[in-house]
Amino acid sequence: MSVQTPDAKVLVANLAAYEARYAAFKEQKLALNMTRGKPSNAQLDLAKGIMTVLGENDTSSADGTDLRNYGGLDGIAEMKAIFAEMLECPPAQVIVGGNSSLTLMHDTLVRAVLKGVPGGKGPWYGQSPKFLCPSPGYDRHFAVCEHLGIECITVDLDADGPNLKQVEALVADPSVKGIWCVPRYSNPTGTTYSDQVVTRLASMKTAAPDFRIMWDNAYVVHDLYDTPDPLLNILEVAKAAGNPDRPLVFASTSKISFAGAGVAVMAGSPANVADAKVHLGVQTIGPDKVNQLRHVKFFRDFAGVRAHMRAHAELLRPKFEAVGRIFEAKLGGLGVASWTKPRGGYFVSLDTLPGCAAEVVALADAAGVQLTAAGATFPGGRDPANKNIRIAPSLPPLSQVETAMEVVAACVLLASARKLAG
Amino acid sequence: MSVQTPDAKVLVANLAAYEARYAAFKEQKLALNMTRGKPSNAQLDLAKGIMTVLGENDTSSADGTDLRNYGGLDGIAEMKAIFAEMLECPPAQVIVGGNSSLTLMHDTLVRAVLKGVPGGKGPWYGQSPKFLCPSPGYDRHFAVCEHLGIECITVDLDADGPNLKQVEALVADPSVKGIWCVPRYSNPTGTTYSDQVVTRLASMKTAAPDFRIMWDNAYVVHDLYDTPDPLLNILEVAKAAGNPDRPLVFASTSKISFAGAGVAVMAGSPANVADAKVHLGVQTIGPDKVNQLRHVKFFRDFAGVRAHMRAHAELLRPKFEAVGRIFEAKLGGLGVASWTKPRGGYFVSLDTLPGCAAEVVALADAAGVQLTAAGATFPGGRDPANKNIRIAPSLPPLSQVETAMEVVAACVLLASARKLAG
């Protein structure tokens, strides 16, 4: 993932050519949007059947509960069973939520701030809580912390997960209360955590007795290839290490069924689940159970989810491969950029020469290609090296992804040559 | 609503007869549940069409948004239009939420505690916030406050709304940050606030500059008769009084469409709505828009909601009238109980002689009729007079409501006579 030393002489010699190529793109007056990790319409259409899978009288779960009425704080048994298999834990350790895992994560941290968590010494409010933020990472995670007064501390996201040397040094501070993790196909790099990283995160000594790993397994089944990246089960590893309450696991069907009308889930130790239910019982009478039944009838079981995700991969893989192919063709061997080759998830992470990311994004924007703002993948929106750019190839059609990547590559070359010409 | 002085001699003379009648009920080994304000299956069936109203391709709102995808923080325009008419305010002042207005209220107070509200001096956390709780009232409102560290102060709920003498005295304390109100067909008494009460609540001087009225209009269209109780528009009255940010209005379709799979809404001043959106933008990417479309297609417009509620009234009215008829026949004129005759909502409030409510509930339970726990309608579950019982006639079939009320009346007579016999 690291950028090699560029051959400055060659690049500077080509500056005029890069300017010309960029100008030519600008004249095309493109209007392409590569900012958002949204599923495409074709992906959404794969789950069309959810819209009509229920008949008028499909109103009950297997145990006879009328799903239209109040009740059922933690979800219907059939939905819990599917999620339990997905997250590799007993159904009793699963809480099914509404349509948003971001909300489940936000609300979990709200409760920690206001009420504390099992094993802790009361509310985090007033304890100057801090959270470790492996970066580049997911901007909305960091925004939740910033919004709730939890200070974000950036740690490096290495090729096998968060940099453990940094992490293990920082958790000696008792005000460091947790860490954000997207352990499989991490946003935006596509990194999957190695067994060693998972084991050390689960077993390391932390000064805070109520340290929490926010394990956002957003891409748990979002493989681009038939051989998923292996990932250890954090709940089991933490339990074995004597830290059963440390991990809180989150996921959703947002990028399986419908991004805005899916079903979210959290899982944790019995103590964490019992604690969450106490709070949830005050916050709500229960999530939308009818929508859970729609999902259950449509997918039938976890094997159905797996099969469905293979169809997603067919749509996504060509786009991801186009990004890599075009970057390789245009930027390969020049030492001006590196990029990830994810085997799943929703993003490609592009690193430019230090100090060039914001200019690349600005150049692309001026040429009609909107990219995620430079810095967005770091806490506070500030990338200290100003080099990381998040590429989101899922939403536009393949031809647009290809055009946009040609433009991005041209912008990288131009920004790099300009810088080197200094 | 007040209990008259009973003729102790007559009642005590009948004690043996009351014991016998109660014993006879006990022998029937009934199993009736009158605890929950849930709609009946027949009511839920009225909205059956929601289950199938969307076709596979009904995936867009009128403005072309794909409702299956991410986005749309405050709801789709068509749903906002219906709620705006229901709550009598501009659509821009409406935020459509998930399936639970309780969640919207809980989260609103969470934000107040953690971040403060417009016009205030920062987070309520550490300000010893207090809330006025007109009682008898809705237990879940009080539970939210208790859970979030907001102290509940009981004030009387009179026949025309909260006792304003008490309220106006208490709001001279700057730590009194708000009041819970169910202004139309209040839970559990059925009280609708008079114009004078609404006006004074909206315009009274409060020591707290960030005082909030949590206006839970849960029964906004839940009339039992063709002539709804009139209710002033709190948003307009407060605006006219120079306190536009004071009221926060909540409602949902939980008791219109499906209790567990409906759509919730909040409304407020432009400042309150803007503030809520900032927080919501961190908490979620948006509510379930597909379910909003289901509701829009099914009801079409607010007139459709009104028509639908008339069908609900046809199912509910006989149950409410049975409660009143049986209480009147068995308890009328004896001075041992009073009860409300609501013209809407979901509950009847029964007052026994002081000190008798818990025994009545226990006697009924022993005879196979479960009632809401005595005291539940007061903060902390403690009714200082031990006299209020919440009757929830909506869920069981009419015949069961009738039987249960016969039992309750018998329990009231027995408990009263026992007490008077000393």
Write the layout of secondary structure elements.
2 copies of one chain form a homodimer.
Chain A: H1 8-13, H2 15-27, E1 32-33, H3 41-46, H4 77-87, E2 94-96, H5 101-115, E3 130-135, H6 139-147, E4 151-158, E5 161-162, H7 164-170, E6 176-181, H8 195-203, E7 212-216, H9 234-240, E8 247-252, E9 264-267, H10 270-283, H11 289-299, H12 302-331, E10 337-339, E11 348-352, H13 357-366, E12 369-370, E13 388-391, H14 398-421
Parallel strand pairs in A: 1-12, 3-4, 3-6, 6-7, 7-8
Antiparallel strand pairs in A: 2-9, 4-5, 8-9, 10-11, 11-13
Helix pairs in contact in A: 2-14, 5-6, 8-9, 12-14, 13-14
Write a concise synopsis of the structure shown.
Chain A is of the alpha/beta class. In chain A, 41% of the residues lie in helices and 13% in strands. In chain A, the strands form three sheets. Chain A has an eight-stranded mixed beta sheet with strand order 2-9-8-7-6-3-4-5, with helices on both faces.
Verbal overview:
Two copies of one chain form a homodimer. Chain A contains 14 helices and 13 strands. In chain A, the strands form three sheets. Chain A has an eight-stranded mixed sheet with strand order 2-9-8-7-6-3-4-5, with helices on both faces. Chain A has a three-stranded antiparallel sheet with strand order 10-11-13, with helices on one face. A two-stranded parallel ribbon of chain A has the order 1-12. In chain A, helix 5 packs parallel to helix 6, helix 12 (302-331) packs across helix 14 (398-421) and helix 13 (357-366) crosses helix 14. By secondary structure, chain A is an alpha/beta fold. Chain A is 41% helix and 13% strand. Chains A and B meet through helix 5, helix 6, helix 10 and helix 11 of A and helix 5, helix 6, helix 10 and helix 11 of B.
